[in-house]
Structures are given as structure tokens and as C-alpha cells.
């Protein structure tokens, strides 16, 4: 049984189909990639999965349990974590405080015995933000902000981690470190779903890749296969591959 | 940035200091209007008013016998609310009557030779307590004043043993308060019902179809409840009891329509002239005629006609003051108008509150004069009640009032409002234009609260010097 | 049946007025995202202008109408948009709301200045003398005209929004402002048009309603509270539903008038009906989608404990100084500074930390005062605890329906609650709910005993001054404690991004509930203490309108800091009354100031308190200045107590000494340490010359006119 299953999810508003019968799955311990042109519906899909938006039809199933009417808060407490394409940091707080909020929240509902302060330090080190731990997040470059969001999400020990363009704003060196980090997370047993424009990164770390275009999945498979799929090439890959 | 902030600070601080200096009140007293000095030997006016001789005049009263009293001067305070920013000029007539009376009285020689100095205390609706505390510092008595929220100062007034010869009172705390003489008594336990009796006799068909209407303010709701008890004691049956939005009704059509659909014939109205006018317009709009509307004395006001125009009909305003329309037939009223013209020509003289306040001043002057060299608070209160007795008319300004017992008056008259003004219907008058009959006063059974007593502040009448 | 028909017609004509006003409200909200609390006030201004032209100057009717509705109203709208609202693009919802409240208060002040209140001004009914018989009643020409105008307005709006290009552009902006920008629509032009149209609609409503109502600035501006429910029924989005809602509202009021049994307790229900309807609607609206992060310029630095204790110490010290030097009457007047300060303080956690809005501060204060008055026999301090707990509980109950919805609904819900209290509940005589006897203002006023702690009674104005300053100081420390705690962090996080908080597993409703209850509780305590100062409380002390300047000035002062609360108290109960004492002109200015300050918030959304604090900073760093102050101020005070001089000399000295110290210190060691200003990088080079920062995105978006950040894409 997959950790996360999305089954025939459609989202319609006005006359448009933002998502059309999307079906995919994410396995524990694997990184699943989700790519596609702008406006394909990737963020919408994430919104549906996390409960920030209701689908017109379809189901989202987490560890065998259908999440139909559950609020984003409930879903988070069931083990879903996410980062945002347009950063949703707590601007007024420092890096440390951003993560601390998450750790405190986690402790309040999980009954965990871990000291939140220590969890925060661990997360800071894990993503490599030690040098800016006390800085206010508004003043940080985007790449580091992404890492803050990631660390914040990790502080709630998610089982499923949805990352929305986490590598955008990172330079080459940072991207390499990031890839390593992703592999670590997967190795710890998380199901990571990665939305990215950096196709090279996706192809490198993902076990499975889905391609979304105009709300529909036009291709699914292993990176090697996707890179040569004609439909995909036609729709998207032409100018992006390295 | 640094120098800009400095400049701003300096300016602000200087301004603040100037304001603070100019306005700290620990030394200076508030605005006053009485004329001081002038010896009192030569008089420029006659001290007689209406049917009363020598209300004011020269004399030899002496002795600093109480707070605010010296050999040559009596310092008193008058409270009113004209400074309220939401309604500038509210009850300005209280200040005006104080000014007119004191100028006239001082010109006539003062009270037994002592000049009156009056502090005009503007309570601006929300500062009554502060004004009372000021009066407690300086004044011998409060005279001829009244405030909309007079509940908040009663305890302080009693704590400093400040008497009040009141122009009017509003709250239950004030209506039943100690150390007070109301010149038109408005107690909590009695109610004048003569006008209800008259309406029942005149409009027998309306008796079972009466409505009561008031604004959404607790104080007026209480008054309306008393009116209902009074009306029902005379046989009326109130079948419709509603409130209108005191802040403003977007339209009077629902209320007018309800009145019509219930077949209401008479309305007991507790409110203010402008809203009554709107109601009457609303009734005229749907073409419905009432037999009568009965309104309180505060509707003796041209605002009714100005707002309501041709829709004003069948509106009876209960009144105890002699109407200005017939001033030429009543020397006291005419003299009142003349004094206003002489000493404060720009003021609005034709107000019922102005007359009531003036009457309070006359009572005060006579009582203070009678006390002479022994002018103390307790003497003032005792003499006011003795002189006022049960038939006080302020020299002929209004109907006979029971000052001694502070009970509602048996006398009433009605003014019938029409689009142009007011006329006097025939009410079987037996005392000039007033109907004064035993049985015109009802002892109320309901509980309408109690006034503030000396015991409430840990004092007793023996504390009063 | 006749009766029903009759009342329906009556209801429709009232509803027509609400519909026109509410549609303007919805139009501006959907197009610009700003809920215009001043809608009624704008209508009021147009009505006054119309009166001035048509009645006072006796111009022809058509000219007066044309000028008020097609010239004045749109100009006001355009002005508001360009001069005020445009500058609020990157501020929080709270700031925008407060600015519109500032506009409301300011316009009332302006109208009262130009047209003195107390004078009767009347506009005769339109088509007076013309009637149409219908069923059992007569419909006046005015009523028919109102319904006709409403129908025309509805149709015109529908046609405009569907068929014209600008109208379609408007609807596009509604759907997705950022997208509309990118596709070439010009949101700025659209919003200016929306404001102009909204104001015209307000003007139409105002002029239609004026023959029924007295021409009074406050009354007219606030009648619109009735129309809020209609706008809510329209979900603040759908004009047809808004019209329907307005008609329902009008009919409900009419039916209640005609059919409700007239018992004393229910008499006020009709007046509270719009507010109650608003509540019921809030219960059934589907939960809002969660907001994403709105870029904002607001920033509230973390308060330090040392600074807080110094602040608290100064507050208590000034309370003692005032208590020992002011006359009784002045102590009563200026003691309200700290009492209002406590009410303002209640807004700091709720509005400043959590970013939620409450307009019912005074109502909770009233409940607290009632609790203390009735349950605190002899001034029992335990009643003070109840004065916290009961308002907190009531607050939680009231807020619950609205908390799952976005901020504006909470604001309107609290406004509805406050109005229902004012018009109905507070006016009730004693009543029983089951075994519980509830006593309110007892049809007049209620006595509140002075606080009595272990036999020491705070029953004189000077003792009360000390008490209230200590209470303010203690509560300030508590609020700072909240800010520095983990709970405070969560509140700030929630304010930044509710969506992120939800995806981290935060119970949003629960968190909002606790902070709302906390705020209501603090208001309750403030109300109780205010009650002991007033000695006798009546509903007028706690009405909805009086609460607006408190919110205004706290935000102007700095809603994220306890200093902002003190700023509000000092301005409202200290500076403004002092200003008014200088004369009529200054009284009028004082009436305008809160409004102007509120409107000017866009320039400095963080509030003035930070600038003030920065100004004092040099003293803190310059030792001799502190020593000087520590000697001079007590000396000046002691001399005053000894009677060497009076207050006229004392207060200027007191005010000038810190000023002198500031000036001296600043000259000696310089102003606030500035980080050396970096040469401003041109917009197009951002991300190239130095690493891209998130705050650069804010700037870029503002420059491109894209400012709406939402998680959802659907309408």
C-alpha cells in the first residue's frame, strides 16, 4: 500500500479544469517527482492534497485512510508536511523562531517527549542553516528561505513531505547539497513528493516521475523513460534538459 | 532624521506644556457669569418678580457661614450640557436663565445685599462627576441646573453636602436624592395623571386601543413604564408597547403600519420632538389618523412643527408652565421674556426649561434671603421647602408645585400642537389655565428604583450644617 | 393576508435602501479588497451636501442631485482611492480596516464641523403628496421611488459588470488580481472606478434615506450597520445575493414590527434584528479558504523585559504624581487615561499579535463593569477575577462562529454583537434565565462599588488614579509576557501565514479562540476598573461607537506594543480633551484628529510609538541624562507637593524635563544608531548585484502592481 495515493482528482472552477483525473502515488522511502510547465496544476494538486482546496471529484488517501473532509490541520497532524512555492514564512520571526513554532506545535499534539529547543537545533544543522540561525527571515536570500521552510516542516516529523519548488533560488553548490539532503530524508522513511523546475535535479534524485500538463498526467515512469517520452518532450522538455 | 525628530519633539513638548499650563485647574475656577462687586447700594432694577415682591434687593446680610458664602457674595453653580460635541447647545437655556437672573438680581441689589456669583458648569454629557467635584470645592449650592446623566454625581454631591435647588432631574438616583429641592418635583413614587384622565373623558373610544412608544434608551424606557402604569390606572389599556431606535430609524413605515393594523387610537409617546414629527409624517403617509398622541413637556418646542410641517395633528403636550403664546396675559411670563431681552437678547428665551430654571432661582433667592445671616445649607433647604410650600408658582410662571413634600403637582395643562404652533384646548381649568384637582396625582405601585441617600455615602442629616 | 402583504411592501422599501448601500459596499470590497466602514459616512456627506444645495441655497432639485451624486460622490471616491487606499497595498487587513474606520470617524467630525449639530435640518420627502393605494395601505411616492431606484441600480450594475469592458475587467480583478494585471487589465484604474461607483451608490442611499431620518452625521453614518447583514448574505461578493439579503433584512424588520408580541423584553429585538441576522448568517457561511501570506510592512520588535519594567515603573510613577497633584475633579477626568489604556491594551494581543479584529472592546468592558457592579458587593476583589472570566467566556462564544472565516467576518460579527448589546440587551430590565437572575443596567444605571482590598477602599479619585495606573502597568507586563512566550510566537506566526500554520498542524480556531477570550477578559477588567471610577455606569458608557477611536488610536500608536495602548489612552483622554479646552476651533480639530490619524496610517503602519521610543533612545545611552532626570523629576514633584508652585508651573516643568534631556543627550551622542544606508539598488538589478532576498520580491510586486497573495486560484 502506498503511503500517499491520489485517485482521479479533478478540480474545476468556472469553465476550467485545473486538474483532470489525476492519479498518482508516493511510496515511503522514495522521492517522487512532479514536473510540468507553468500553470499545469502542480500547486493546485498540492493544495488539494493538504486540504487547502477541495477537489471537485477524486480522493486523497493517506496510509489507507481517505482524507475527504479533513481540514489542513488534521491532515498535518496525520503526518503531512509541505513547503510552498511562494514562500509562507513567518516574516517577523527569526529562522530559529520559525522552526521553533513548528516544533512547539508538534509537541502540543503529538505528546512527544523531545525538547523542542533541541529539535530546532537538530533541524538547523540538518539543513545547514547554522550561520543564519538568528537572522530575521525577511532578510535572507531565497535559497536559504527555502531551507527554513523545509526545516520548519521537518520539525513536525511528517511521513509525507510535499516540496513545492524547494530548489528555486539555489545555486549549483546549494543544489548539490540539497540533493543529498533529499536522499537522506527519503532514507529515513519519508515519502517525498518533489515539484521542481530544475529537471536535472528531479531526474537525479527521483525514483519515479510524473509529468503534468494542462491538469492531466501525460506521463509517468522512471526518469530515464520520461526523458525520452515523446509526449513529454513535445509538451515540455525541449528547452529545459541539461 | 535626528534633527527632524528633535524639532518635532520640541514643538510637541512646548505645545503640550502650554496646553497643560493653560488648563490645569487646581487654582483657577471655571467660567462664571455673575457680576461681582458693585456694592449693592445703588440698584438699577426693581427686585420684584411677577406676584412676588422683593425677590432681590439691598440688605445687610453678613457672615461667612458656609462654603461659598461671604459677607458680600454667595457663590453657586449651575450645571448643564451645552458643551457636548454631539449636540452643541444642549439645554443651553439653563445657563441662559442663570445669567439673566443673576444679572438682574445683582443689579437690583443682590440677595439681601449679597451679590450672586454663578459658576456655569458644563458637564458635556460625560463630565457631570467632574463638575460636581469642582462645585464641591467652591460653591454654596447648585441652582437651576440639570444634566442628562445626573446619576454619576449624586454620591459625590452628598459626600460634600452640597444642596441642589434643581431646574430638572433625569436619573432615578437624582429624582429620589437627598439634599435636593426640585422646583418641578419629579419623584419616583408619584405620577401626575390628570392629563390621562382628561384624555379618557374626551376620547372614550380610544381607551382600549392605546399604544406606548419610546426610544431605545433605558432612562426613557423607565419613564414610559411609569406612564403606562399611570395611564392604565385611569382605565386605558395599552395593547402595543414598542421601542424605536434612539439613534435613528431608517424609516417609520413599519411602526406606522403596525399602529394602523392594530387599530391604535392613542399613543403615549416618550421621546423627543423630531422623532415624534417623523412618526406623524409616517402616519400621514399611510393616511392613518390617531385620536390623540400625548407627549411630555419637552415637546413644547418649535422643532415639532419645523420637522413635521402639515402632518402634526392631535398632539397633546402636557405642560405646567404658562405658555408663551399668551405671555401678554401673564405678567410673570412677560417679565421673564423682558428680562431675557434686556440681559441676554441673543438667547432663546421661549423654552420651558428656561422658565423652570428661572423659578428655581427665584426660590433660591427667597430662601437665601430668609436665612439672612444664618445662610447655611440646612437653612437653605428648610426655607426653600417652607417658602415653596404646596403652591409654589415662581411668581406666576407655572402651575402650583408641591415643593414642601416634593410630590408631583396636581396641576396640569395641555398644549395642542398644530402645523403652525400650539393652542390651548379646554381642560376644565380651575386655576388660571391649569386644571388642579385632587386625584390628578397617582401613587405609583411599581418599583422604579431609588434615589441616592445620605446613608449611602455614610453620612446623615445631622452632618449638614 | 392583507397584513402580511402590507408589511412585505413596507419591508421591501426599507430593504431597497439597504440594498443600495450594501451594493456599494460589496462593489468596493470585491474590487479592492477593502471593506469600507465609511460607506455610510460618505452617504451622509452627500446627503448633507444635497441638503445644502437643495434646501439651504435653494438650487433646483436636478442640479443638487447631479452635483451630489455625479460630481461630489465620484470625486470623493477617486480621492479616497488615490490618496488613501492606494498606499495601503502592502499592509495587513487590520490596517486597511482601521484606515476605513478612521475615515468614518473623520468624516463625522468633518460634517459636524461644517454643519453644526443641534440645528434641525430637514429634507422633505420626494414625490410627497403622491400615494398609491395597495392592499390595506398606502405606499408613498418616496417609497416607490426608492424601490424603483434600487431596481434600476441592480439592473445597471448587472449590465455594467456583464456587458461592458470595464465591468468585465472589474470582475476579473475580483477573481484574481495578479492574473488580471498580467493580462493587461489595469487594476488601479479599475479600483478607482470601483471607489467612485461605490461612493455614488452610498450617496444615492444617503439621499434616499434622509427624508425619513434627521440629518445628523453620526446617525446617518451608522445606519449602515443595518446593511452589513445584507452584505454578508451576499458573501461580500455576489451582488444579486446582496440585494436579496437586503430585501430579506428589510422584510424581517417589518415583520418583527408587525407580528412580534409586544412584551417589554422583546421590544428591542426588532432593533437588534440586523445584528442577530448577521450572526445567523455567519453560522451558515462555509468556512473560508485560508489566507496565504500577505506581504506587509508591519514589524514589531520583541520587547525586552528591562524596557518593559521601566515602562511599567514610569506608568505607576506618573499615576502617583497625578494622584498627588491633581484636584479631585481633574483626577476624575484624567484618570480615564489609564482606564482607556487598559481597553486599548486588550487589543494588543488580539490585533497586534494575532492579526484578528474585534470591534466589541467596549461591549466586553461593559460586561466586565456589570459583573463587578453586581457581583462585587463592597468592592470585593474576587469580582475582578470574574470581570475577566465572564467577558472572556462570552467573547469565546461570540467569536466562535466567525473564527473559521476570514478576518473581515470577525470584525463584522463583533460589530453586530456590540450593536445588539447597545440596542437591545443593555436596555433590558432584570430577567431570569432558568434559575439565574440576570441584572444589567436596571433601566438606567447601575452602581459600582469602589474596589476594596483588605479593608483599603479605593474610593477617592486620587486612590483610583493610582489603582488604575498600577492595573495598567501589571497588565502591560502580562501582555509582554504573552508576546515573549511560545504562545505569543504562535500568534505572530498565525498572523503571518494561516495557511502555513495549518499545514504545520496548528489548531487555528482554538488559537484564535484563546486570544479572543484573553482580549475580552482584559477589556472586562478595564471596564470594571472604569466602572469604579465612574461610580455609576449606564449603557452609554460602553456603546459601539465609543470603541472605534480606541481601536483607531491604538493602531496609530502601534498595535504591536503596549506603548501603543498608552498612546491611545493619553491621546483620547488626555490630549484631545485638553485641546478642546482651548476653544471651539480646537474642539473641532480635536474631533477630526483621530480620523486623520487613522487615515494617515498608511504612511506609518507600525505606529508612532516606535518613533517616539527612538527619540528617547539617546537618554538611555547617555548616562548623565538618566541621572539628571532621576534627580530633576522627583525634585520638581516634591517642590510641587510642598506648595512652592501650582499645577500651572508644575506640569510644564514635568513635560519639559525629559524633552530637555532628550535634546541634550542627542546633541552629545547622536541619534538612533543607523545602519549606513546602502546605495539604493535599481529595481531591475535586484538579484544580480547582491543575492535575491524575499523582501525584494515585495518591492518588485508592489512596483508591478501585483499584491494579492492567495493560496487558492478559484473564485
Q: Domains counted in the coordinates of chain C: how many?
A: 2
Overall domain count of chain A: 2
Helix run count of chain C: 29
Q: Assembly state here?
A: heterotrimer
Structural class of chain A: alpha/beta
Explained architecture:
The complex is a heterotrimer of chains A (242), B (465) and C (715). Chain A has nine helices and ten strands. In chain A, the strands form two sheets. Chain A has a six-stranded mixed sheet, sandwiched between helices. In chain A, strands 2-1-4-5 form a four-stranded antiparallel sheet, covered by helices on one side. The longest helix of chain A has 16 residues, at 95-110. Chain A has 242 residues and is α/β, with parallel strands linked by helices. Mean pLDDT of chain B is 88; it is low at 19-41. In chain B, strand 12 (411-417) and strand 13 (422-423) form a beta hairpin. With 715 residues, chain C is mainly alpha-helical. Chain C contains 29 helices and eight strands. Chains in contact: A-C, B-C. The interface between B and C is large, with 82 and 99 residues.
Brief write-up:
With 465 residues, chain B is α/β, with parallel strands linked by helices. In chain B, 34% of the residues lie in helices and 15% in strands.
Helix-strand blueprint:
The complex is a heterotrimer of chains A (242), B (465) and C (715).
Chain A: E1 4-13, E2 16-26, E3 31-35, H1 42-50, E4 57-62, E5 65-66, H2 72-77, E6 80-82, H3 95-110, H4 116-127, H5 142-154, E7 160-164, H6 172-187, E8 191-195, H7 199-205, E9 208-213, E10 216-221, H8 223-228, H9 230-235
Parallel strand pairs in A: 3-8, 3-9, 6-7, 7-8
Antiparallel strand pairs in A: 1-2, 1-4, 4-5, 9-10
Chain B: H1 2-23, E1 73-80, H2 92-107, E2 115-122, H3 128-138, E3 141-143, H4 154-159, E4 164-166, H5 172-175, E5 180-182, E6 190-192, H6 194-202, E7 210-215, H7 218-233, E8 238-244, H8 253-261, E9 266-270, H9 273-285, E10 292-295, H10 303-308, E11 315-319, H11 331-343, H12 352-371, H13 377-388, E12 411-417, E13 422-423, E14 435-436, E15 441-443
Parallel strand pairs in B: 1-2, 1-3, 3-4, 4-5, 7-8, 7-9, 9-10, 10-11
Antiparallel strand pairs in B: 6-15, 11-12, 12-13, 12-14
Chain C: H1 2-32, H2 39-56, H3 61-84, H4 93-114, E1 131-134, E2 137-140, H5 141-163, H6 165-175, H7 177-182, H8 187-209, H9 217-223, H10 225-233, H11 239-259, H12 269-284, H13 305-325, H14 328-334, H15 336-353, H16 361-375, H17 382-403, H18 407-423, E3 431-433, E4 436-438, E5 446-447, E6 452-453, E7 456-457, H19 461-484, H20 486-496, H21 498-503, H22 508-534, E8 536-537, H23 544-558, H24 562-581, H25 584-599, H26 609-621, H27 623-641, H28 647-669, H29 694-704
Antiparallel strand pairs in C: 1-2, 3-4, 5-8, 6-7
Helix pairs in contact in C: 1-5, 1-8, 1-10, 1-11, 2-3, 2-4, 2-8, 2-9, 3-8, 4-23, 4-25, 5-6, 6-8, 10-11, 10-12, 11-12, 12-18, 13-19, 15-19, 15-22, 15-23, 15-24, 16-17, 16-22, 17-18, 17-22, 19-20, 19-22, 23-24, 23-25, 24-25, 26-28, 27-28
Amino acid at each position: 500500500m502506498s503511503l500517499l495515493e491520489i485517485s482521479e482528482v479533478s478540480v474545476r472552477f468556472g469553465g476550467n479544469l485545473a486538474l483532470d483525473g489525476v492519479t498518482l502515488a508516493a511510496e515511503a522511502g522514495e522521492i517522487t517527482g512532479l514536473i510540468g510547465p507553468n500553470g499545469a496544476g502542480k500547486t493546485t494538486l498540492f493544495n488539494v492534497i493538504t486540504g487547502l482546496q477541495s477537489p471537485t471529484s477524486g480522493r486523497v488517501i493517506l496510509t489507507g485512510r481517505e482524507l475527504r473532509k479533513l481540514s489542513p490541520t488534521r491532515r498535518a497532524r496525520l503526518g503531512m508536511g509541505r513547503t510552498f512555492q511562494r514562500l509562507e514564512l513567518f516574516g517577523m520571526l527569526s529562522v530559529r523562531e520559525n522552526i521553533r513554532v513548528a516544533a512547539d506545535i508538534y509537541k502540543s499534539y503529538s505528546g512527544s517527549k523531545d525538547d523542542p529547543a533541541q529539535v530546532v537545533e537538530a533541524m538547523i544543522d540538518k539543513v545547514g542553516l547554522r550561520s543564519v540561525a538568528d537572522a530575521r527571515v525577511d532578510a535572507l536570500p531565497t535559497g536559504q528561505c527555502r531551507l527554513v521552510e523545509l526545516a520548519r516542516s521537518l520539525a513536525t516529523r511528517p511521513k509525507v513531505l510535499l516540496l513545492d519548488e524547494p530548489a528555486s533560488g539555489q545555486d549549483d553548490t546549494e543544489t548539490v547539497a540539497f540533493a543529498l539532503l533529499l536522499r537522506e530524508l527519503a532514507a529515513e522513511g519519508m515519502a517525498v513528493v518533489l515539484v521542481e523546475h530544475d529537471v536535472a535535479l528531479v531526474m537525479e534524485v527521483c525514483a519515479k516521475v510524473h509529468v503534468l500538463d494542462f491538469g492531466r498526467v501525460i506521463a509517468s515512469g522512471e526518469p530515464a523513460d520520461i526523458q525520452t517520452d515523446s509526449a513529454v518532450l513535445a509538451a515540455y522538455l525541449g528547452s529545459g534538459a541539461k | 532624521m535626528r534633527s527632524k525628530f528633535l524639532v518635532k519633539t520640541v514643538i510637541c513638548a512646548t505645545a503640550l506644556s502650554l496646553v497643560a499650563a493653560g488648563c490645569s485647574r487646581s487654582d483657577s475656577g471655571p467660567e462664571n457669569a455673575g457680576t461681582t462687586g458693585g456694592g449693592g447700594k445703588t440698584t438699577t432694577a426693581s427686585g420684584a418678580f411677577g406676584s412676588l415682591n422683593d425677590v432681590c434687593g439691598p440688605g445687610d446680610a453678613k457672615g461667612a457661614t458656609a462654603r461659598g458664602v461671604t459677607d458680600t457674595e454667595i457663590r453657586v453653580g449651575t450645571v448643564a450640557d451645552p458643551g457636548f460635541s454631539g449636540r452643541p447647545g444642549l439645554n443651553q437655556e439653563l445657563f441662559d436663565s442663570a445669567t439673566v437672573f443673576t444679572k438682574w438680581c445683582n443689579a437690583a441689589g443682590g440677595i439681601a445685599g449679597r451679590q450672586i456669583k454663578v459658576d456655569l458648569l458644563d458637564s458635556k454629557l460625560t463630565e457631570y462627576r467632574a463638575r460636581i467635584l469642582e462645585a464641591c470645592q467652591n460653591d454654596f449650592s447648585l441652582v437651576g441646573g440639570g444634566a442628562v446623566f445626573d446619576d454619576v454625581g449624586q454620591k459625590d454631591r452628598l459626600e460634600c453636602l452640597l444642596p441642589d435647588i434643581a431646574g430638572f432631574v433625569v436619573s432615578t438616583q437624582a429624582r429620589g436624592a437627598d439634599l435636593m429641592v426640585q422646583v418641578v418635583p419629579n419623584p419616583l413614587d408619584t405620577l401626575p395623571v390628570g392629563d390621562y384622565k382628561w384624555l379618557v373623558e374626551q376620547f372614550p373610544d380610544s381607551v382600549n386601543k392605546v399604544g406606548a412608544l419610546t426610544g431605545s434608551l433605558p432612562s426613557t424606557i423607565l419613564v414610559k413604564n411609569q406612564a403606562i402604569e399611570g395611564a392604565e390606572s385611569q382605565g386605558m389599556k395599552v395593547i402595543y408597547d414598542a421601542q424605536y431606535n434612539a439613534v435613528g430609524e431608517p424609516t417609520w413605515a413599519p411602526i406606522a403600519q403596525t399602529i394602523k393594523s392594530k387599530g391604535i387610537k392613542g399613543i403615549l409617546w416618550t421621546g423627543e420632538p423630531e422623532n415624534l414629527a417623523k412618526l406623524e409624517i409616517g402616519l400621514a403617509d399611510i393616511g392613518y389618523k390617531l385620536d390623540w398622541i400625548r407627549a411630555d413637556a419637552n415637546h413644547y418646542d418649535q422643532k415639532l412643527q419645523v420637522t413635521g410641517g402639515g402632518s402634526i395633528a392631535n398632539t397633546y403636550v402636557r405642560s405646567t408652565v404658562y405658555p408663551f403664546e399668551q405671555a401678554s396675559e401673564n405678567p410673570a411670563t412677560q417679565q421673564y421674556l423682558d428680562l431675557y431681552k434686556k440681559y441676554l437678547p441673543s438667547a432663546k428665551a421661549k423654552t420651558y426649561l428656561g422658565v423652570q430654571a428661572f423659578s428655581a432661582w427665584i426660590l433660591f433667592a427667597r430662601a437665601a434671603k430668609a436665612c439672612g445671616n444664618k445662610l447655611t445649607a440646612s437653612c437653605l433647604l428648610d426655607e426653600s421647602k417652607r417658602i415653596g410650600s404646596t403652591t409654589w408658582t415662581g411668581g406666576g410662571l407655572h402651575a402650583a408645585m408641591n415643593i414642601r413634600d416634593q410630590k408631583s403637582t396636581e396641576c396640569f395643562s395641555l398644549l395642542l400642537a398644530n402645523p403652525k404652533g400650539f393652542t390651548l384646548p379646554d381642560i376644565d381649568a380651575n386655576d388660571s389655565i391649569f386644571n388642579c384637582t385632587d386625584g390628578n396625582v397617582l401613587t405609583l405601585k411599581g418599583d422604579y428604583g431609588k434615589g441616592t441617600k445620605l446613608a449611602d455615602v455614610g453620612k446623615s442629616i445631622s452632618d449638614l450644617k | 393576508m392583507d397584513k402580511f402583504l402590507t408589511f412585505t411592501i413596507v419591508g421591501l422599501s426599507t430593504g431597497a435602501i439597504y440594498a443600495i448601500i450594501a451594493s456599494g459596499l460589496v462593489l468596493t470590497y470585491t474590487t479592492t479588497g477593502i471593506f469600507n466602514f465609511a460607506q455610510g459616512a460618505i452617504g451622509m456627506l452627500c446627503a448633507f451636501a444635497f441638503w445644502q444645495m437643495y434646501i439651504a441655497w435653494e438650487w433646483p432639485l436636478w442640479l443638487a442631485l447631479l452635483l451630489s451624486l455625479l460630481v461630489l460622490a465620484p470625486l470623493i471616491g477617486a480621492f479616497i482611492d488615490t490618496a488613501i487606499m492606494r498606499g495601503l497595498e502592502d499592509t495587513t487587513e487590520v490596517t486597511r480596516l482601521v484606515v476605513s474606520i478612521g475615515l468614518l470617524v473623520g468624516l463625522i467630525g468633518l460634517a459636524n464641523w461644517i454643519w453644526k449639530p443641534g440645528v434641525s435640518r430637514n429634507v422633505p420627502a420626494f414625490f410627497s403628496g403622491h400615494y398609491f393605494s395597495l392592499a390595506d395601505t398606502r405606499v408613498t411616492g418616496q417609497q416607490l421611488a426608492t424601490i424603483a431606484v434600487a431596481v434600476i441600480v441592480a439592473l445597471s450594475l448587472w449590465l455594467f459588470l456583464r456587458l461592458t469592458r470595464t465591468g468585465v475587467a472589474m470582475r476579473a480583478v475580483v477573481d484574481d488580481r495578479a492574473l488580471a494585471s498580467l493580462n493587461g487589465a489595469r487594476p488601479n484604474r479599475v479600483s478607482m472606478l470601483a471607489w467612485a461607483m461605490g461612493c455614488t451608490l452610498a450617496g444615492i442611499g444617503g439621499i434616499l434615506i434622509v427624508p425619513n431620518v434627521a440629518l445628523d452625521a453620526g446617525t446617518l453614518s451608522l445606519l449602515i450597520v443595518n446593511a452589513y447583514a445584507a452584505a454578508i448574505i451576499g458573501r461580500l461578493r455576489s451582488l444579486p445575493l446582496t440585494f436579496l439579503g437586503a430585501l430579506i433584512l428589510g422584510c424581517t424588520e417589518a415583520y418583527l414590527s408587525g407580528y412580534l408580541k409586544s412584551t417589554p423584553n422583546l421590544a428591542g429585538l426588532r432593533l437588534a434584528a440586523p445584528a442577530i441576522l448577521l450572526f445567523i448568517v455567519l453560522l451558515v457561511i462555509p468556512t473560508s479558504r485560508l489566507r496565504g501570506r500577505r506581504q506587509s510592512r508591519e514589524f514589531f520588535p520583541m520587547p525586552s523585559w528591562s524596557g518593559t519594567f521601566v515602562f511599567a515603573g514610569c506608568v505607576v510613577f506618573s499615576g502617583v504624581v497625578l494622584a498627588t497633584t491633581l484636584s479631585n475633579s481633574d483626577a476624575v477626568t484624567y484618570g480615564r487615561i489609564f482606564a482607556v489604556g487598559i481597553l486599548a491594551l486588550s487589543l494588543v494581543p488580539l490585533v497586534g499579535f494575532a492579526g484578528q479584529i474585534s470591534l466589541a472592546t467596549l461591549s466586553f468592558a461593559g460586561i466586565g463593569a456589570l459583573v463587578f457592579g453586581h457581583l462585587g458587593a463592597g468592592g470585593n476583589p474576587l469580582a475582578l477575577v470574574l470581570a475577566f472570566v465572564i467577558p472572556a467566556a462570552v467573547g469565546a462564544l461570540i467569536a466562535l462562529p466567525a473564527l473559521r472565516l476570514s478576518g473581515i467576518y470577525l470584525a463584522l460579527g463583533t460589530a453586530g454583537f456590540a450593536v445588539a448589546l447597545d440596542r437591545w440587551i443593555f436596555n433590558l430590565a432584570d430577567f431570569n434565565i432558568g434559575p439565574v437572575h440576570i441584572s444589567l443596567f436596571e433601566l438606567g444605571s447601575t452602581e459600582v462599588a469602589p474596589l476594596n482590598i483588605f479593608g483599603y477602599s479605593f474610593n477617592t479619585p486620587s486612590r483610583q488614579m493610582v489603582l488604575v495606573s498600577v492595573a495598567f502597568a501589571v497588565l502591560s507586563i502580562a501582555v509582554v509576557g504573552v508576546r515573549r512566550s511560545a504562545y505569543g510566537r504562535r500568534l505572530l506566526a498565525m498572523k503571518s501565514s494561516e495557511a502555513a500554520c495549518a499545514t504545520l498542524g496548528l489548531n487555528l480556531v482554538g488559537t484564535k479562540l484563546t486570544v479572543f477570550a484573553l482580549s475580552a477578559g482584559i477589556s472586562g477588567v478595564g471596564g470594571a476598573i472604569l466602572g469604579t471610577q465612574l461610580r455609576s455606569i449606564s449603557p452609554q458608557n460602553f456603546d459601539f461607537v465609543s470603541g472605534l477611536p480606541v481601536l483607531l488610536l491604538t493602531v496609530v500608536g502601534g498595535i504591536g506594543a503596549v506603548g501603543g495602548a498608552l498612546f491611545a489612552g493619553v491621546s483620547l483622554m488626555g490630549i484631545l480633551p485638553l485641546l478642546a479646552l482651548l476653544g471651539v476651533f480646537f474642539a473641532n480639530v480635536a474631533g477630526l484628529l483621530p480620523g486623520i490619524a487613522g487615515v494617515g496610517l498608511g504612511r506609518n503602519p507600525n505606529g508612532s510609538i516606535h518613533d517616539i521610543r527612538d527619540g528617547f533612545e539617546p537618554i538611555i545611552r547617555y548616562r548623565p541624562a538618566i541621572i539628571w532626570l532621576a534627580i530633576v523629576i522627583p525634585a520638581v514633584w516634591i517642590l510641587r507637593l510642598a506648595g512652592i508652585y501650582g499645577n500651572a508651573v508644575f506640569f510644564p516643568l514635568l513635560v519639559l524635563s525629559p524633552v530637555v534631556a532628550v535634546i541634550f543627550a542627542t546633541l552629545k551622542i547622536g541619534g538612533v544608531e543607523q545602519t549606513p544606508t546602502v546605495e539604493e539598488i535599481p529595481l531591475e538589478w535586484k538579484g544580480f548585484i547582491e543575492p535575491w532576498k524575499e523582501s525584494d520580491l515585495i518591492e518588485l510586486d508592489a512596483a508591478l502592481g501585483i499584491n494579492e497573495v492567495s493560496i487558492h486560484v478559484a473564485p
